[in-house]
Specification:
The protein is an alpha+beta fold. The protein has four domains: 102 residues, Phage tail proteins - horseshoe like beta roll fold (Roll), CATH 2.30.300.10; 77 residues, Baseplate protein-like domains (Phage tail protein beta-alpha-beta fold), CATH 3.55.50; 76 residues, Bacteriophage T4, Gp27, baseplate hub, domain 3 (Elongation Factor Tu (Ef-tu), domain 3, Beta Barrel); 55 residues. It is built from seven helices and 23 strands. The strands form four sheets. The chain has a 15-stranded mixed beta sheet that branches. The protein has a three-stranded mixed beta sheet with strand order 11-14-13. Strands 18-17-19 form a three-stranded mixed beta sheet, with helices on one face. Strand 17 and strand 18 form a beta hairpin. Helix 4 packs antiparallel against helix 5. The chain is globular, with a radius of gyration of 23 Å. 29% of the residues are buried. It comes from Gracilibacillus xinjiangensis. Pfam families: YQBQ (PF24032). This is Phage late control D family protein.
């Protein structure tokens, strides 16, 4: 079989610098998060002749677009590629000896208005997707809204909160995931993605698995139910909904939520989604494997031969590393049943 090869193509400010990067590459890392955190890359280059230091030193905010490419990786004459998306140089650094340049870049725009500026705004009779589109336009981003989970609100208030934090919390309440990647805000239903077929199966005895660890936590998880209760002074009545996962008795662990809701249906949604958020990380795992570009945030994998930890897992974070080989590390949580 022909030799395996993993490499990266790099476009910088619209210019192809693949040849220069390939010649000086020490390491490359691409982190793809399912939600919450921005995606990121880190590129370390040797600089024996100080070309990167003097002539090609990057500027903060410059755009870089890397593509991971593999040849003969899975089988002979097999070629794959993974476009990592657009990133913006955040923290270029340089050190020696030997002389090295490190480029760190993130997928979120460096414009601080999206993350750092407090805003207040009121929406009436509006759906979540419309709110997200308003915020995306304000940040100079596009919106990718996946799925049909698009709740509508009579009134929704943003009060002295940055756009990123406000939208993230709103999505979380509705059981939706949100991330910023490739110059767009992506919103999707985690539950729907968990129902999709797994992209691959990893077995404990397989040579593809390099190392692994599992953890089960019961301290902040394993609630039997969630009770949402809110007194609406305008309507003069209490809106309440109890969502139960297991049979309720005197020893049951019930999580209490006292937050403004407009209707019983909204209280129900909030209770169900809160229960899921509380319990979804009861079993987590970390896995390091021979590089696999199919492993990305929000896909699922099956694990076999790990005893009580066998099952279907959702990828929360995937890190692809090139340099002296190609490996992928993933952070996983076991897919919940019955939600």
């Amino acid at each position: 079989m022909l030799g395996k090869r993993a490499s990266i193509d790099v476009s910088y400010q619209g210019v192809d610098i693949t040849e220069a990067v390939d010649k000086d590459l020490i390491s490359f890392e691409y982190v793809d998060n399912a939600s919450g955190e921005s995606d990121s890359i880190s590129l370390t280059l040797k600089d024996e002749k100080h070309v990167w230091l003097i002539d090609w030193f990057p500027e903060k905010g410059d755009m870089i677009l890397p593509i991971i490419k593999t040849t003969n990786w899975r089988r002979e004459n097999d070629k794959q590629s993974l476009s990592c998306g657009r990133f913006y140089i955040d923290e270029p650094s340089y050190n020696g000896r030997p002389s090295k340049l490190q480029l760190d870049a993130i997928s979120s725009p460096l414009n601080g208005n999206f993350k750092d500026v407090n805003r207040s705004k009121s929406w009436r009779n509006i759906a979540l997707k419309e709110i997200a589109n308003d915020i995306a336009n304000r940040a100079g981003l596009t919106l990718q809204y996946i799925g049909n989970n698009n709740p509508r609100y009579q009134v929704k208030e943003q009060s002295e909160t940055p756009d990123a934090s406000f939208l993230s919390e709103l999505c979380k309440e509705e059981g939706l995931a949100m991330k910023v990647t490739d110059s767009k805000i992506v919103i999707f239903d985690e539950l729907e993605f968990e129902k999709k077929s797994s992209v691959t199966t990893y077995k404990e005895w397989g040579s593809v698995v390099l190392d692994y660890s599992f953890n089960t936590s019961l301290s902040n998880t394993n609630y039997d139910g969630v009770n949402v209760k809110y007194y609406d002074p305008m309507k003069g009545k209490t809106i309440e909904y109890l969502y139960t996962i297991n049979e309720i008795n005197e020893e049951s662990k019930i999580y209490q939520v006292n937050k403004k809701v407009e209707s019983g249906d909204q209280a129900r949604r909030l209770a169900q989604k809160t229960a899921r958020n509380l319990n979804k990380r009861e079993t987590t795992a970390s896995l390091s494997v021979i590089g696999n570009i199919e492993l990305l945030g929000s896909v699922c994998v099956n694990l076999e031969g790990f005893g009580v930890f066998d099952g279907k897992y959702y990828v929360e974070k995937a890190t692809h590393s090139i340099g002296g080989g190609f490996t992928t590390s993933v952070e996983l949580r076991k897919v919940l049943e019955g939600y």
